[in-house]
Structure prediction request, 222 residues.
Amino acid sequence: GIQVEQSPPDLILQEGANSTLRCNFSDSVNNLQWFHQNPWGQLINLFYIPSGTKQNGRLSATTVATERYSLLYISSSQTTDSGVYFCAVDSNSGYALNFGKGTSLLVTP
Amino acid sequence: EPEVTQTPSHQVTQMGQEVILRCVPISNHLYFYWYRQILGQKVEFLVSFYNNEISEKSEIFDDQFSVERPDGSNFTLKIRSTKLEDSAMYFCASSVGIGREQYFGPGTRLTVT
Prediction:
């Protein structure tokens, strides 16, 4: 099946710093999504971005489908950005989302 | 904004008991999914459902599991005889089509004792 690798696995930032999270995937995809898992365990949809660039406030994402990677940018980080960020891509069948292991982000005051 | 809802938010059950987890997908969505996340691990796909039948399932989704859309709004996951290793967060999701954005519910935390 399709492989999804995220880096770095862990990241500690001071409030106000910027960061870049990376997601590499092993095959072409129709669906690529970024999620933020908050401390209560909820998965919050950040971006649906199988290709191109999108921005939402302090967050932006870019997917280069031909090179099989996606980047999530967090600017001016806040303590509420803490949590785990997951990248997920669809399987060859198109139904299942395959999740990476996530990047655990801690933003300190 | 429409959202996927799940009940209950937390369920505790004894090993060997049957549990039913409930989900209400977004109303105009046609594809429904269940995922699970064991504490500290990544989210894993269980099953997808379209047009009243299973369209794909993972190796995790064995004979102990079943899904059903009993009416026009609910989508359920049944675990017939729970095991300790079934303890996890279970997420329901829905989408308008294949390869389209999947919207996740808040999850049901299942604890098997």
Q: What stands out?
A: The CA atoms of residues 38 and 94 of chain A lie 27 Å apart.
